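This is your field. Have a critical look at the following sequence-structure pair:

***
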Amino acid sequence: MARVTGLGGIFFKSRDPTALAAWYAEHLGLQVDDWGGVRFDEDEERPGYTLWSAFAADTTYFAPSTQPFMVNFRVDDLDALLAQLRAAGVEVDPRIEESEFGRFGWIMDPDGTRIELWQPPA
């Protein structure tokens, strides 16, 4: 059975992502990279990492969700998990994105929150 293996990241909307990143850097010591987020490396035995990232308040990346945040979960087998979710009647975005960062798919939870599923590269 395919499953979630960890938290891949938390992404949220902000009226001013640059100022918010500066606040987190000053008060919590987060070292925000040029791309606008922070990467937390974890267990070297398990592929992946966790991200923290503020998006512009008008981003459409979370669409069709109207929630101000999106959760990303690390998964062990994206194709198998998406098939399981479709079979269970979960709303699954038909698009799969592949890049040097891995493979991504999306679902909607019952509250209308967009959930990103991420299979890191091996």
About this structure: Residues 4-119 form a domain with the 2,3-Dihydroxybiphenyl 1,2-Dioxygenase; domain 1 fold (CATH 3.10.180.10). The radius of gyration is 15 Å. The chain is about 20% helix and 40% strand. The first helix runs from residue 17 to 28.
